[in-house]
Amino acid sequence: MKKIVFQLSWLCVFVSCATSPTGRQQLVLLSSGQMSKMGVNSFNALKKTQRVSRNTRQVAYVKCISNHLLVGLSEKPRNWEVQVFVDKSPNAFALPGNKIGVHTGLIDLVKNQSQLAAVIGHEIGHVKANHGNERASQGLVAQVGMTAADLALGRDSVSDQIILGALGLGAQFGVLLPFSRKHEQEADRLGVRYMAKSGFDPMQAAELWKLMKRKSGSGPPEILSTHPSPESRIKDLKKIGQRHLKEFQAVRVKPECDRERLK
């Protein structure tokens, strides 16, 4: 691990590096403007190829939760686009350029607003921690060399695949580039922090993953996966949730998004 950190520090002398919200050093070759443009373009492409939900109750529910999370982060909800996609998979994503997408399968799975907030907060955490840029930068360096900083979508098929995968859109575009275990753990930490600050029960993040575990069944051993095992994730999320309980309890006016769901 020390060797990896040293190598990254040495590389940062020659290229652009950043620090994640948790203090971790990152290699980033693409500008925030490039990432935002690619996120917006990808989101627009999804809206053309995937079915967008017209269920006003579902949309209001997701927007209520997303807006509370964004306000808790001192973001302006009007600057973000939130869409619900008709898809049975229990999934959600957030993209650079202020885009949030939630699948109807996830809405059907969760039992309450805090569980959905846990997933949306986690996905926002990926964006806020610049994980897409970091993954794209690592992939571009490995595949096409240090000229990667000048690449953008539409110029090179190899870099296009890497960038689309880095944005977390592998399933939609046929590119598989999962987040690393450290990215997932970092997004978990940030997501629980965000939901607690916004008035959502941070202990529900672990409960959400219990549901995910039951739905997915037995997965591969943790050592064979880039994702933490469900058991490890649930255990860690319980500890993180406990650390943020005071922040949650300090929020005087709690969200009431479940009312939108029950209308």
Helix content: 55-70%
What would you report as the Rg, rounded to the nearest angstrom? 18 Å
User: Mind describing the biggest β-sheet?
Assistant: 3 strands, mixed
Strand order of the largest sheet: 3-5-4
> Spans with pLDDT under 50 lasting ≥5 residues?
1-11, 145-154, 170-176
How many alpha or pi helices? 13
Order of helices and strands: HEEHHEEEHHHHHHHHHH
Mean pLDDT: 80
First-residue to last-residue Cα separation: 52 Å
Number of domain units:
1
Beta-strand segment tally: 5
Assign the structural class, choosing from mainly alpha, mainly beta, alpha/beta, alpha+beta, or little secondary structure.
mainly alpha
Tell me about this structure.
The protein is 57% helix and 8% strand. By secondary structure, the protein is mainly alpha-helical. It has one domain (27-252). The strands form two sheets. Strands 3-5-4 form a three-stranded mixed beta sheet, sandwiched between helices. A two-stranded antiparallel sheet has the order 1-2. The longest helix is centred in the first third of the chain and has 18 residues, at 32-49. The radius of gyration is 18 Å and the shape is globular. The N and C termini lie far apart (52 Å). Residues 1-11, 145-154 and 170-176 have low confidence and may be disordered.
